[in-house]
Each structure stands twice: as C-alpha cells, then as structure tokens.
Design brief:
two-stranded antiparallel sheet, disordered C terminus, single chain, elongated, 10 helices, 324 residues, ubiquitin protein ligase binding, disordered N terminus, mainly alpha, Jnk1/mapk8 associated membrane protein
Length: 324
C-alpha cells in the first residue's frame, strides 16, 4: 500500500496540500512530492522556490517586538530585586541592553545571507503558514504526506536562535558583573534577576513555538493595551494628577517617554506608515489621565483599600486567637 500511494502522488500533475512541492532539477520539476528544503517554499505551481525577498516593515516590527520582550523582562526583574538603595541597578540595565543588542547582531550575522545584517525571507501569506504541521495532506485518507516546513522562513526560527544567544550572553556576563557591583544586596538577592531569566526564557520559547503566528498578527494591539494599562497603573500608584507632579522627578519622565516609545511602536505597527499622521494624535494618553484625575479620587481609593486590608488582617488574627 505505501508503494502504491507514493507512486500515485508522484504521477499526479500537482502536489496535494498547501505546502507539498517538487524540487526543480535542470529547469524542470522532478522527483516526488514532499517537503521543501529550509529557506524555500512552494509557489502556485507547487514547485519549491528559494526565498529571496527582503522582510517587509511589519516583519521587522514583529522581530523587534519579540526581541524587546526579554529586554523588558530583564529590566523589570532587575528593578524589582535591586532595591531602592542599590546603586547597581543602572549598570545592570545597561548590561542587559548590551546582552540583547549583541545577541541580535550575532543572530542576524549567522542568518542567511551569512555575514550581513540583512536577511532573506518568505512572505507571510496566511495564518496557516506558521502551523504547517497541521496541514499535512492525506490523499488516500490512510497515509499522510508529511510536508512540515518553515513557510515563514526565517521569522519562526530566528526568534528561537536569538533567545538562545541572549541566554548564553547573560550567563557569560551577568554573574560576574552582579558579583562585583551588587554589594548593597544580600547574597540571596543579588542573583534573583538572573534566576528569573532562567524561568522566563523557556516561557518565551514556548510562547514563540506555540503562539508565534497569533503574536504576529496581534502584537501591535498587545503593545497598545499593555502600554496604556501599565501607564495608568503607574500614574495611579504614584498619585500623578497633574503635569507639574509628573516632571518633578526624572524617573517619572523616563517612564513616560518609555511608554511614549512603546505606544508609538504599536501605532506604527498598525498603520504601517500609511495613516501615521492621523494616528499620532493618540500618542499622549496621559492627557486623558490628567483630565479625569479629579473625578477618580485616587487617594480615597488607596485609603479605602488600605483600611480594608487592615480590617481583614485584624479579623484574621481574631479568628486565629479564637481557634486557639
């Protein structure tokens, strides 16, 4: 039965399925239908063609978004575990940026064409291009013709290679740096930001492997929503209710400009520079916070939540004493 199946597929004029194709040999399509080599994908005639196009602006923005994720997580955990009195946080932030930047450059250099910062890619046409393993055809409804390939070359694997380089660079640079400069932290706290990276890198890898296609189409809206939510939470927690209270501290300005950059990144990803002039009016969401802060009663909310927490703790202690 397998021999009859293979011969029937080989004799058919076109290959079945979306991603099965034949190789070009001496200007003619020869061989059996199957998976195309890496860096190639099928055309309309079901012939494997080499990907020679350059990535579009949207593809570069997607790669930039996936490259920013470990950097932002590095910065978050460095700030979280460094403490207010630690003077090593800034140097660790710079080191994390250096690690991710060097990893990105090395990843581009090892990707075809090797030795250049440019890459060649296959254009993304539909969501199924990210999940070719789900579209292996069964012409006789018994045997499956396996044609799993990277139809979005190299957008799928280049992110995984980049994460691997980021992990290697972090393990080479960060422990020595933290051991020398993080004197204000305890022995158990100085390496916690590195331990956190050992957790979130596998999570990011699984996220890219499973949800890469969904992230490709949804990342602009994810950036916009997260930048708005985090900015609103930060301004509420810091009780920033006016422009004057915003510019009093340099750290607040850094946070504001960082959110501006993220917001602009999401806007450019959605508009793709087609309607950029119309969409830039949404670049300053904090103005809405200033206009509505007088109706929010931020201090009352914090006081009420604090009193509720105290009452809950007191009630819990009374119950504990009663049980004893």
């Amino acid at each position: 039965m397998p021999c009859v199946f293979i011969s029937a597929v080989a004799m058919s004029s076109t290959c079945p399925g979306l991603y099965c194709g034949r190789m070009m040999v001496n200007g003619s399509a020869e061989g059996e239908c199957g998976v195309c080599p890496r860096g190639e994908r099928t055309n309309l005639q079901k012939i494997c063609e080499r990907c020679t196009e350059s990535p579009e602006l949207y593809d570069w923005l997607y790669l930039g978004f996936m490259a920013m994720l470990p950097l932002v997580l590095h910065w978050f955990f460095i700030e979280w575990y460094s403490g207010k009195k630690s003077s090593s946080a800034l140097l660790q932030h710079v080191t994390a940026m250096l690690e991710c930047s060097v990893s990105a450059v090395i990843t581009l250099l090892v990707t075809e064409p090797v030795g250049t910062l440019g890459i060649r890619s296959c254009r993304v046409q539909m969501l199924s291009d990210w999940y070719t393993m789900l579209y292996n055809p069964s012409p006789d409804y018994v045997n499956t013709l396996h044609c799993t390939q990277e139809a979005v070359y190299p957008l799928y694997t280049i992110i995984l290679i980049y994460y691997a380089f980021c992990l290697v660079m972090m393990m080479l640079l960060r422990p020595l740096l933290v051991k020398k400069i993080a004197c204000g932290l305890g022995k158990s706290d100085r390496f916690k930001s590195i331990y956190a990276a050992l957790y979130f890198f596998p999570i990011l890898t699984v996220l890219q492997a499973v949800g890469g296609g969904l992230l490709y189409y949804a990342f602009p809206y994810i950036i916009l929503v997260l930048s708005l939510v985090t900015l609103a939470v930060y301004m509420s927690a810091s009780e920033i209710q006016s422009f004057k209270s915003l510019v009093t501290k340099k750290k607040r300005l850094v946070v504001l400009f960082s959110h501006w950059l993220l917001h602009a990144y999401g806007i450019v990803s959605i508009s793709r520079l087609d309607r950029l002039e119309q969409d830039l009016c949404w670049l300053c969401p904090e103005s809405f916070c200033f206009l509505t802060s007088r109706f929010a009663f931020i201090q009352l909310i914090f006081r009420t939540s604090f009193k509720t927490h105290i009452q809950y703790c007191s009630h819990s202690r009374l119950l504990l004493c009663y049980n004893h």
